Amino acid sequence: MTCHNCRSQMVKAGFYGTKRIQRWKCQQCGKRFSEPPTRPFNTDVRLSQETVVRILHCLAEGCSVRSTARLCDVEKRTVLNILKIAGERCERLLEQTISNVPVRDLELDECWSYVFKKEGHKHPSEAKDDQIGDQYTYVAIERNTKLIVAWHLGRRDRQNTEQFIEKVRSATADQRFDVSTDAFIPYNDAINVRLWDRANHSIVVKVYDKPEEGRERYSPGNFVTVEKSVQRGIILPYPRYDPTTLSS
Questions:
Q1: Pick the CATH number of 102-119+131-248 from 3.40.50, 3.30.530, 2.30.30, 3.30.420
Q2: Whole-structure pTM value
């Protein structure tokens, strides 16, 4: 370690405090310094690494923010801050590592959620606020390796769909692969424009029978079959599904 005062080499000079922080002494000018502590995420996080890991484990297991705060003996705002920092680091890692990946079969889908309130509960003054209401997480997963190739968060519209397909292009290698989507119309134009040189596009629609009337009328019907239509390229057929073998 180098002295901050005279730029000379320093030697160890014992530990300081109950946390045993390493102290250093300069033999040239006699200055003493403490070794800077390592903080989680290399940012201004005052919690110990064990506490941060425990918070992330609770969230990954599906615990709510309030229950995680009770289990880890921290404030709810602290849990939200840790979640935000961890998400930003994971997003940065994904962008740096998932690039030019060779894939065979990509499945694109969206997961529905909402921010603050559902779309139908918005006030007239909030109608044009895209930060409130329904939000969708676009996910591209490789069917054979289960690798998440790309993701995108936003509205289920043409603009966000094009941004999502652009992320898929940046993450995949320049070779031919199959990509399957649902019947959402903006997928066709986005894939034809941005993945025209590498993607064989097909639409996969699951067919269910009509649910019975009664106490289960809100439940979906029983799975019947899968209908697949080619939109671009030549698609290899999926394995035939037998509805009798599917678990309820």
A1: 3.30.420
A2: 0.70
